[in-house]
Amino acid sequence: MAWLMLAAGLLMLVLGADLLVRGAARLAGNFGVPALVIGLTVVAFGTSAPELAVSVRSAWAGQTEMAIANVVGSNIFNTLFILGLAALISPLLVSRQLVRQDVPIMVGVSLLAFLLVLNGNLARWEAALLFLVLLGYTLFLFLQGRKESGSEPDEDVVALLGTQRPLWWNLALVLGGLVLLVIGARWLVDGAVQIAGALGVSEAVIGLTIVAAGTSMPEVMTSVMATIRGERDIAIGNVVGSNVFNLLCVLGLSGLVSPEPLLAGAQMLSVDFPVMLAVAALCLPLFFVGGTLNRFEGGLFLVLYAVYVWYLIAAQLNLAYLARLESGILLGLVPATLVYVGLCLVGDLLMRRREGDIGS
Hints:
Layout: H1 2-30, H2 35-46, H3 49-60, H4 64-89, E1 92-93, H5 96-116, E2 121-122, H6 124-149, H7 155-162, H8 167-199, H9 203-215, H10 217-228, H11 232-257, E3 262-263, H12 266-288, E4 292-293, H13 295-317, H14 322-359
Antiparallel strand pairs: 1-4, 2-3
């Protein structure tokens, strides 16, 4: 029954997020909100609605470690699994703005969240700080969008708003989406807690893996479909934007509604947060080189995610080969990844020099 609750909760979260985005976007359009603003707020952040519902529900119910674990696990899943899968389907294009602005912001926000929880918890004032940063970030995106695109909104947003529906219908979609999100979050969290107890693992591990992967399903569908349609830059932009929103809004709101500070256990501080920060930082050099994320790098991302989940399970169950696994990761996988990144950067530098010599 716990697994059925979890699966049903996931399905309700995905459907609820879709209904909420459609209804809220059209409702905002009914009241004259510009399409550009709708695209930068309701639609852009809508794919993270499941994470928001689950983390807020967990925080309100007193499962404060799962609230943070869901955010951290979702960001790791988004970066390694979703980008890895999308890059395997087709090499992803990386715009200059992503390299120069969006990815550094993602790394900076990840570092900020890590620093705030270094003492083992996220207090209400720290959560409020994250939410204030979100408001500033959204305002920045809006002003930048008006300046660079001449107030032209995204085509998908225009298509969504172009489908006319009466006001009552949009209100019904919003209310229906909220109901599905609330019920889905409750079922998902309750099912995950029961599964954690039955498997003998902590709620944090379930939050970092099963719950995190499940609540990221909208991001999976958005990025994969964008890649298949040939919109390969959107696939990366969706993941980067979702990661920033998870840390600023989901973590911020969860900390604000929680009756007590959100907890970050010893493993989360020593393993999970550093992994989230490391994979965010890994995107910078790989995106910079050639302006693409190729299939080999996509495969590398998937391998890194599989090893991360393997380590979480081995550590929780205290398996006999845990020490050998740790040595293999620290002495094998991590150095090999760094060597590959270094070779890519050197190769890119040499290529740029040759192009400069030819140009001169």
